[in-house]
Amino acid sequence: QLVREGVVLMNERMAFINELSRYASEAYVRITNGEELTVVYRPDTRSEDTLLEALTDARPSDIKQGVTTRGPHRDDIDLLVSKKNARQFASQGQQRSAALAIKLAELALIRDRTGEYPILLLDDVLSELDSQRSQRLFEAIPDAVQCVITTTDLTDRDGLFGAECRYFHIKEGCLEAQ
After folding, report:
1. How far is CA 50 from CA 8, 25, 78, in A?
2. 20 to 30 A from 123, CA-CA: which of 7, 58, 86, 169?
3. 98: phi > 0 → left, psi -120 to 50 → alpha, else beta; which?
4. How far is it, in rounded angstroms, from Cα 147 to Cα 26?
């Protein structure tokens, strides 16, 4: 059963990650002003035959451990910035930009599938981005997207959010409009 359903899941993931990668790459270029991002699906096994073989080989050990160590639940993704693994070679700003590019890619995918954008929630997004990346991030967010941003400091971000923004402040546990 795991092989039959796992292969379906792996194929769906592959298609989704390929589509997500296209959108994320476009968003990353806008945020970083030209750097390249690729999202790569890394399945634990490559095909129905190799999945069956991997599960068969691991079965005695899996029974002893009480856990299935091979299969689609072991799949992963890699983020490549300028063709290098982001976990190992990207700066904090590049890693944060990659994560934000994936958020923007998810927005586009949801819009394509449902006809409307979801609400975009960004929690303390400005703390790890320089002012230029912050500016390009907000320029990359489509105008039709409702966005909720939390931040601890707006002092050096004058004009970043535009005139249509509403600001709130939490003081002593109470939300106050500013």
Report:
1. 14, 30, 21
2. 86
3. alpha
4. 20
Q: What are the residues facing 76 on neighbouring strands?
A: 42
CA distance 155 to 126: 11
Q: What is the mean pLDDT of the chain?
A: 90
Specify the pTM: 0.83
pLDDT over 90 (residue 170): no
Write the CA distances from 101 to 7, 37, 81, 163, integer angstroms: 28, 9, 12, 24
Give how far Cα 93 sits from Cα of 1, 28, 118, 169, Å.
43, 12, 25, 27
% pLDDT > 70, the chain: 94
Better-predicted residue by pLDDT, 126 or 100: 100
